Structure formats: C-alpha cells, structure tokens
Amino acid sequence: MLDGPRLPPRSGGAPDSLVVLLHGYGADGRDLIDLGSYWAERLPGTAFVSPHAPEPCGMAPVGRQWFGYVERNDRERWIGVQAAHPALETFIDAELNRHDLPASRLALVGFSQGAMMALHTGLRRAEAPAGIVALSGVHAQPSEREAEAAGAQPRARPPVLLIHGDRDEVIPVGALSRARVSLAAGGITPEWHVIRGLGHGIDEEGLELAGDFLVRVLAPR
Questions:
Q1: Which of 17, 69, 80, 178 is the most exposed place for a label (fewest CB within 10 A)?
Q2: Is position 52 within any domain?
Q3: Residue 130 exposed, middle or buried by CB count within 10 Å (0-12, 13-18, 19+)
Q4: In this structure, how many other beta carbons lie within 10 angstroms of the beta carbon of residue 40?
Q5: Residues in Cβ contact with 130 at an 8 Å cutoff, skipping those fewer than 6 apart
Q6: In this predicted structure, what is the pLDDT of residue 58?
Q7: Is residue 5 left, alpha or beta, with left meaning phi > 0 and alpha meaning psi from -120 to 50?
Q8: CB 46 within 8 A of CB 11
Q9: 106 inside domain
C-alpha cells in the first residue's frame, strides 16, 4: 500500500480538491510535498499528498522508483507504467475517499518518472481528473504491435499541461513534442511550455505555470 507525506488545506476546513504529487526516479514523496506549500495560498481549499513510489530504487540506496529504469527505452517505460498503475490507482481512490471528494476534483502533478505515471494513470481513470501536469517527462506508449492491446488507449481526456526545459540532459526536450503527437492521437490537445535554459528540474517559471493551470482546473464549482 502506498503512503507518503500530506498537507491539509490551508483554509483549515474540509478539502474541496486533491492534488497528488508524483516524484521522480530515485527520490521519494518528500521531494515534492513542498510544492503544496508553494501553491497553497492560491489553492487554500486543496489537500496535497506525495506518495512514495512502491519499489526501492536500484540506483539510489535511499530513493524509490515507480518501476525499474535501466535501459530507459520505450518498451521499458511502457511495461513499467502498466506494472505500477494498479497501486497508484488504488492509492488515488483511497485518498479521494478519505476526503469524501469526487474523482473530478483530482489533479495529478508528476516530475520525470512521476510525470510518466501521472499521464498513464490520469488518462485511464474511469472519470477524468480535473487536470494533469507533466514536468520533464515522457508519455509512455506501447509499440505498434501492442497499440491495440487493452489499456493502450486513454479512457479519460482531461486538460493536460506539459512543461520541459530545453537543456534537459536526462530526458531531452524532444519528449515534449512526441507527447503532443501521442496525446493528440488520443483526442487530447495539451497545453505546453518549453522553458529556456532549464535542465532536468523544476524552476520558478515552471511552478508558476503549473500553479496557474491548477488554479484554473480546480476552480470551485
């Protein structure tokens, strides 16, 4: 069962929305939970949670991984997101139930390997989340031979924001262009931003862009 640090709504009341923060390879939930503090003033009714990925990281003795990431190719990513999906799906449902929130009041924010999970799981929810933010990630896709397999096509088509640095040395910025194409093939036209001079990380510009998006998609109804 996944678990990780949580931040209650700044308002002090019951939450009106939930943001799930998904960390990258070799980190853990503590790596991203402070993003909730950064956005809390603009999202006072939002609860934040940042689960630790399910597996110890093979390349970082104190970190976690959503899936093994050795070959770093398309097949490994596709197999990996499918394997990690059920545990994340179960965790999201439990958190929504904890706060008595509908699935439509959920947003997913992922960085790097966490962005792969945010896109994969967010697009396969029975009810579309309010939005997905993918930071410095990849939209994992099956091979052409597997493209018609169960689970290959999205079930949900929420708003999506892609953010990537043009100096990313881990996941080159071309991954954003490929994600735009693959998402469009599934009926989704994402918003996107390339940040000049940014490597594999999150900077203030990216935080502001993501915050603007979250405020918009999680606006009280």
A1: 178
A2: yes
A3: buried
A4: 19
A5: 17, 104, 105, 106, 107, 158, 159, 217, 218
A6: 78
A7: beta
A8: no
A9: yes
CATH number at 146 reads 3.40.50.1820
Q: How far is CA 209 from CA 110, 142, 161, 163, 192, in A?
A: 14, 29, 9, 8, 10
Residue owning tokens 């998006």:
213
C-alpha 177/C-alpha 174 separation (Å) is: 5
Cα 84 to Cα 55: distance, rounded to the nearest angstrom:
9
Model confidence over 30-43: pLDDT tens digits?
Answer: 999 999 999 999 99
| Short-list 102, 101, 58, CA closest to 80 | 58
Q: Quick check: 158 and 134 in contact, CB under 8 A?
A: no
SS3 content of the chain, % helix, strand, coil (to 5): 35, 20, 50
185: containing domain: 6-217
The Cα-based distances of 77 to 5, 71, 131, 138, 155 in angstroms read 26, 9, 22, 9, 19
Buried b (16+ CB within 10 A) or exposed e, 65-100: bbbebeeeeeeebbebbbebbebbeebbeebbeebe
Tell me the angle at which helices 74-99 and 113-122 cross, rounded to the nearest 10 degrees. 70
pLDDT tens column, 40-84: 999 999 999 999 999 999 777 789 999 998 888 999 999 999 999
β-pair partners for 7: 48
Whether 64 contacts 57, CB under 8 Å: yes
Model-level pTM greater than 0.90? yes
